Protein 1
Amino acid sequence: MKNKTVVVTGGAGFLGSHLCDYFVRRENKVFCVDNLVTGNIKNIQHLLKINNFDFIKHDISKPIKINAKVGYILHFASPASPIDYLKLPIPTLKVGSLGTYNSLGLAKANKAKFLLASTSEVYGDPLVHPQKETYWGNVNPIGPRGVYDEAKRFAEAITMAYHRYHKINTSIIRIFNTYGPRMRIDDGRVVPNFIYQILHKKPLTIYGNGNQTRSFCYYADLIDGIIRLLKSDLHNPVNIGNPDEFTMLEFAKLIQEVSGTKVKLVYKPLPEDDPKKRKPDITIARKLLRWEPKTKLSEGIKVTIDWFKENNYGKK
Ligand code: UDP
């Protein structure tokens, strides 16, 4: 990967900015493409003055030209939290479809390696547990989450088509719930919501009865998985996530223990089509990428709470 130019779409977002850091540290030339709709310039502020880093404010749903020979394209642009894609349904559909098409066009023109950030949402509200990559999913195409799920399913389809038809070297990562520094405190997801509530001694909002499950992966483990997949020749989708599964009630208990702050619970309605269970089967990542997550949820959550405190992100 040495000396290659890297394009990260969504490079000012939570995961995208950590990827920019990774490549800048390794002295790759990095182009960060982001329209800042859900990304935050603060995430890349420290990189703006660095020579081998260029920020291009651009919506990747529109075609792009890069004046350099590109070696790697990591397509991470998209609203990614349920409240974001409910607020931005059409940009979400566009970036998953047209944005992926434009990014693949760039890969084709440069004969670059292309990595698509896909999602566990392609499994919808899964009827198979844990989810293996061979499961086709249970998605409501016209429900509120359909704009994200179907855009990412289309993104996977067009990526495989470019691989098969144009012989582009592509990989697809299916990312399960990930958390850590640089998440937005107001992105509506359970980790920042609970941290905000803990920091302000407000009750934790439990949607539904709290028995739905998720498996949370620390961002640094995820970045390691992304890089291993990028270096591999695996073209079929690979799940990357932490298989330790928690109910939201268990998670509410854990976050109170880690922070040493006890608050009440309040119950709110369960959002439409909220998946009841989610846990990745990571056999492929374990065997073929020699990857598995290392960070315990309690450790990662502690670091994340401290980061929100230090960065004054505790304010919305
Ligand atoms: N959730 C919750 N309270 C909150 C926010 C979310 O109980 O304040 C639940 C939500 O209903 C879902 C789970 O936490 O079952 C994870 O939600 P999130 O929005 O983080 O991501 P998702 O996995 O649904 O995309």
Protein 2
Amino acid sequence: MMLPMKPVPTDQQRALIERLMNACGGGYSPGTRRKYYITGPQWAAAYQGQALFHAPTRQPIGFEDVIREYDKIGIGHWCTHDTDVIPTESLGKDEQANIVERIKNALKEHGLECSMVTTDTFFHAVWAASPAAEAPEVRKYAAWRLGNTVKIGHELGAKFAVYWPGSLGYYTQGAVEETETLRWYADGLNAACEADIELAKKYNRPTLKHCLEAKPFEPQAEILLPTSDAMLAFIGSGLLKHPEMVGLNPEYLHELMWGGAPRAALARALLAGKLFHFDINDGYRLKHDVDIAIGLVNPLDWLNVLVLLRSHKYNGPFNLDYKPPRTTSNHGVFAVSFPTAVDRFITLWEMAGEVISDPIIREATDALKAGGGPADPLDVEAITAANRELLTLHELIAHRMVQILVGQHRGRTHSV
Ligand code: GLT
Ligand code: MN
Ligand code: MN
């Protein structure tokens, strides 16, 4: 009979975590991790576990510590909201310049690059009626905030600006006229693009890639741009002055949340030439934004997503936009959450390469595309019969992908 384990004294708990992490194996070196365009958000590492209904479980942590820990792990890029690092009341003031200088130094010291900047247009009370509110002063302030973030982006060497519209929507219908609000939202993006064109000249840099991020259910009851497809339509609506500067930052979970297939959403963005940036995480359909780390819920779906992106040579950032669970400690965030998330991404990326070159999948796919060659191309029965056996390959391909996912393609079999 197994004896129950003795309580683990607090001063031995970190050592236990380290020992079990080592026992897990399968980790990559920081050097290997840095070869991937993986970006680490300030807000993900600094998240204290204070989801709705929850008190924080972790201590606050500043950007200097986050950048240092990302360096140790081998996460080569960092990104931030304006107010993750600069207090709202200091934006645009001398303190902003001082903080930007400190960020530059920390990035330089640790050999990280700032990949992306984003404006927080959801937390402060000023955004209660959205950044595209009726009051012109709110919209003017929003336009200023977006331009100020673009400026910070240029100063830090970023290539991307992300826009999650946050509270663009409503709780009760009728007060908001949707077409008017969307026009106002477009005005904000136009102001950001125009500011960018000027700033890019001043700093002698290319303009940023401006990426819209959709989320279907939060933080309003109804969202005006709830999906990546809605955003594609918005980019093509004629409201944007520089639609060529604007693309998408889809988030895996945000597409899954509304019941979509993330891989199909990404495919539509690829076809439109708008897949600029990608937030990687995991979670469940038709639930709130749980932001679980990549591959912990849907590894097979993730493998499929990466097959699509690898085969289309997507070369933008993979942004670790997830929230370490509130059961994880401050130590655990950097000892377990981030290294394991990065390593699952790399493993799945490598597996996607195996799927693409797998001789069985390749032959099966080629055979499906060759078809059965019916004698009479207008005879519906003959066409159906010619493909009847071949179509079994759909299921065989799915089986093969699971084999690759669990390592059975390398001869691993399971016995009781
Ligand atoms: C917020 C949202 C994320 C976005 C961030 C960028 S803010 O945490 O839930 O999905 O990517 O603004
Ligand atoms: Mn996101
Ligand atoms: Mn999310």
